[in-house]
Amino acid sequence: MSYSNNKLINNTLCRSFALIDYNIHNNIHKQYEFRKQIILNKESLKENEKSEAIKIITKTYDLNKLILNSGTIRICEICNQECLATTYCEHCVRNYLKKNFSNWASAKGGFSEIYTATWVDGYFIEWDYGKQQLKRFGNQAVVLKKLRNVENANQNWLEEARPHLTISNKWPEVVQCYGLTQEPSNGNYMLVMNIMEIDLKKYLQQNHNQLTWKEKIQIAVDIIYAVSKIHNENAIHRDLHSGNILCKIGEKFFMSDLGFCGPADKPLKSIYGNLPYIAPEVITGKEHTFKSDIYSIAMLMWEISSGQPPFFNYEHNYDLARNIVNGIRPKIFKINEINLSYQNESNDSSAQQKENNSLKIGNYNSSSKLFTSKLYHFDNLPEPRNATEEEQEVTNHIIFIFLMIHKANIKYDSIQDDYKIETMRQQNLKHYINDNDEDERYNNLNINLEEQDKLEPPYNAE
Q1: Which residue ranges in the chain fall short of pLDDT 50?
Q2: Which secondary structure element, helix H or strand E, spans residue 156, and what is its range?
Q3: pTM of the entire predicted model
Q4: 3-state class of 125 per DSSP?
Q5: How far apart are CA 245 and CA 263, in angstroms?
Q6: Contact between residue 218 and residue 170 where contact means Cβ atoms under 8 Å apart
Q7: InterPro entries annotated for this entry (predicted)?
Q8: Which of 227, 225, 235 is nearest to 288 (CA)?
Q9: How far is it, in rounded angstroms, from Cα 381 to Cα 383?
Q10: DSSP state, 116?
C-alpha cells in the first residue's frame, strides 16, 4: 500500500494502519484519532512531514464520513449548509459539479439512455478551499446512464437509491458510481459510473472454450462475494444477469446496476428483469428477497459452466415464465473427465492462448442487445412448484439438442418453434431414449467436434 512518494511518510502511514486494534478502535473516528497520534508521536518525522501525513489520512477520513454519514456536522463558511467533511464542503463540490456538467464531452452509445463520456477534469484529488474548485488529475472515461422516469419516482425509490450509491463507493466489488447528477438542459437524472470493458455474457461467448475450470470457479466466486457484500448491507440487487456483471480485462468481475434497475415508476403487478434469471416467486408477483438474488446466482453459475445463457433456446414470453414457475430448470450436466494437462498449464501458456484468441474488447454499453432486462406483466400464472421428472426430461432434451447444434455449428433453420421440438420429443421419448442413454449423451457434451459425426441423432428429425 502506497500513500506518499516520501518513504518515511509512507512507512509511518502503513504502520499506523497495521497497528489499529479493531476491538478498541471500532469506528472510523477512533481509527482516525489513533492513526493521527501515531503520526504525531513519530520523532523521525519533521513537522511538515507530519502535516502531510495527517492531510493524507484526513482525506480518507472525510470520504468515510460521507459514505457512512457519520461524524460532527459543521457549517460551511461559503454556502452556509451543514457538512461532514473537514477539508472541504460536500455541498460546494456538488454545486461545482452541477455548474460544470455541460463541459463534459459525451458521445451517445448504442443504447438510447447510455452515454460514454470523457470527464474533462477527471476525478478530484482534493478541494481547493481558496479557489473554490476541485483539484483533479486529468481526463477520465466514465459512463453516464440516464434513469428512466425518475421525475415520477416516489419517495421510497429515492430513499432506496441513496444507500445503493453508498454501497457502490464502499465496496470495490461493485462498479463505482460517482454520483447522481442532473442534465441542466432537460432536467434528466443520470448516474455517473466508472467505465468497464466487457460484460460476462460477451466474455463467455468469446472465451468459454479457453477457460479452465479454475477460472470459471473464480468468476463464480467474484460474483458470490460481491452479492454477499450487497446483502451484508441489507440490500438486494434485484436484476442479476450476465449483462450486469462487468470486468476490465486482467481484473476480477464486478457487480453493476445496483438498485437502479428498471423505471422508477414501475407499474403495479409488473416485474422488471431478465426473465431466465428471475426467481419463480418474483415472476408470480412476490417481492425480491435475498433468496431471489441467490436463485439468479444459480442461473449465472449454469451459464458460466455451460457457456450459454439459461433457457437460451426460449423466447422471453409467457410460455417461459410458466415453465419457470412450474419448476423447469436448465439441465446440470455431469463432467466425466477434466483434461488435467490443460488445467495444469502455466499461467503464461494460458495467457498466450487467450492472446492468440484475439479477444475483442468493446465498451459494455455500446450495444443495445446487452440490455435485456425489461418490464413483464403476466396474469393467471400458477403458484411455483417443482417440475415432474417427465417435464424436466423434455426440457433437458430440448436444451441438449440446441447445445449439440451450437457446438457443431449446424444451422437449424428448419425448426424454429420450441413447441414443435417439444411435441416431437414427447412423441419419440419412450422409443429413442432410456435413462442410461440420456446420461451418456449429456455426459459427452464436451466431445471433440471431429467425433460428433459419430453420434446418433437423439431422435429422428424426419
Answers
A1: 2, 105-112, 339-371, 406-462
A2: helix 155-170
A3: 0.59
A4: strand
A5: 20
A6: no
A7: Kinase-like_dom_sf, Prot_kinase_dom, Ser/Thr_Kinases-Pseudokinases
A8: 235
A9: 7
A10: E
The pLDDT value given to residue 426: 45
Domains and their CATH numbers in the chain: 7-71 (no CATH), 91-194 (3.30.200.20), 198-454 (1.10.510.10)
Angle between helices 28-40 and 7-18 (to 10 degrees): 140
> What are the angstrom distances between the C-alpha of 408 and each of 262, 402, 421, 451, 453?
37, 10, 19, 10, 9
* Location of C-alpha cell 410460455: 319
Are 103 and 118 in contact, with CB atoms under 8 Å apart?
A: no
- H or E element, residue 94: helix 90-99
Task: Give the residues across from 186 on adjacent strands.
Answer: none
Dihedral angle of Cα 135, 82, 163, 191, to the nearest 10 degrees? -40
**Residue 251 cell numbers, joined:** 481484473
Alpha-carbon gap, residue 210 to 353, rounded angstroms: 7
pLDDT at 290 (0 to 100): 92
Nearest Cα to 297, choosing from 234, 221, 233? 221
User: Would you tell me how many other CB atoms lie within 10 Å of the CB of residue 41?
Assistant: 11
Cα separation, 93 vs 116, in Å, equals: 22
Please give the Cα distance from 193 to 15 (Å, whole number): 33
Residue 228 CA to residue 167 CA, distance in Å, equals 12
Distance CA 158, CA 294 (A): 25
